[in-house]
Amino acid sequence: MNEMKNEDSEAKTGEKAFEKAVIDYRERIYLMLLKYVRNREDAKDLTQETFIKAYNSLGSFRGESGLYTWIYRIAVNLAINYRTRSKTSLFRSIDDSQGIYNGNSPSDNLMQSELSSGIDNSVRKLPERQRMVFVLRYYEEKPYSEIAEILGTTEGAAKANYHHAIRKLKSDLGDYLRGDSL
Amino acid sequence: MKCEDVQKRIDLELTGSSLDFDSALKSHIESCEKCGLYYKEVIRLKGILSSQSFEVLPGELDDITFEKIIHSAKPESRGAGVFESIFSLRWVWAPAAAVAIIILFLVSPDINNLENGKSLSVQSDSTYLGNGIFVESDEEASALAVSLISDNAEIELLADELIFGSEIDDLIETLTDDEFEILYERLGNTNGSS
Fold this sequence. Notes:
Low-confidence stretches of chain A: 86-93, 96-101
Low-confidence stretches of chain B: 84-138, 149-167, 188-194
Number of strands of chain B: 2
Helix content of chain B: 55-70%
Shape of chain A: elongated
CATH topology of the largest domain in chain A: Rna Polymerase Sigma Factor, Chain: A
Mean pLDDT of chain A: 82
Number of helices of chain B: 10
Structural class of chain B: mainly alpha
Structural class of chain A: mainly alpha
Strand content of chain A: under 5%
CATH architecture of the largest domain in chain A: Orthogonal Bundle
CATH class of the largest domain in chain A: Mainly Alpha
Largest sheet of chain A: none
Oligomer: heterodimer
CATH superfamily of the largest domain in chain A: RNA polymerase sigma factor, region 2, helix turn helix motif
Largest interface: A-B, 70 and 64 residues
Strand content of chain B: under 5%
Order of helices and strands of chain A: HHHHHHHH
Radius of gyration of chain A: 20 Å
């Protein structure tokens, strides 16, 4: 009887820990996913899916890494295997849904919006793994050793992917780099 | 120091908030016009990428809640059962397991070397062949993989076996820049997409 009470209490503690993880980590996970998918709706869906998958897979969580690291890896893997949900999301910039007045002139905003779409499209064009390495290195500023661990690959491969991603972005955003479109 | 290596290192050091080099690299960039121009381009790329900001809009994630997640979770995952094993037992053993893993890692051979480039694999069931390449069928994936192996001795050396149902990225990631470019071009041309 006491054993059952203990199990109930431990389960409640566990539920509370996961509930706290959802609140504490959802923003960080969402922002990483947004940098990868470049669409708010899809990033949100993926965030939700990440936590559902984490909850369903709790049985395989062995506590070797922290809970956040484990959930983060689930998010990374889901993102790499993700296919965009809606056709429109391919053409929509992450800034489109913000609609926040930023004090810039309309022409400045137009240029910024065009640039932002250009960046989104260039990043989306990167092959999945290169794109993820780019996000993890450039935005999340993770060391190559950690990127390799997250993606289950070697440090050298992570570096090669990043190098190729930067080269492609430079080539793709060439007009902006030379100032032709600004 | 070769310009190609310097430019690769410039790329590799770039992150959203920094681009730092050691003194040898700095002096090369200062004295070499080609690498100086390359460096300026990377700085401009950093400036362009920094023009985007990523923020959570007010209330945007309010509906990602624990309740909604457990509602969407598999029925068998709901409730107390799953937490009994995870939060009560494994978390207690986690520190001990971590120590054991560290010890195992210290005494084991280099795992990366063991795994690196030991297999060529192709995922065809979801029509994804790695690095943005798509194929329509197992046959197409197979033909492509075989042609990759037979057309490049370097690749053949790396590919011990052909496994369907996994990813080709493992192989691609072991290639040099030049090999990668050739392969990427070949894949793109073969499949009409890249």
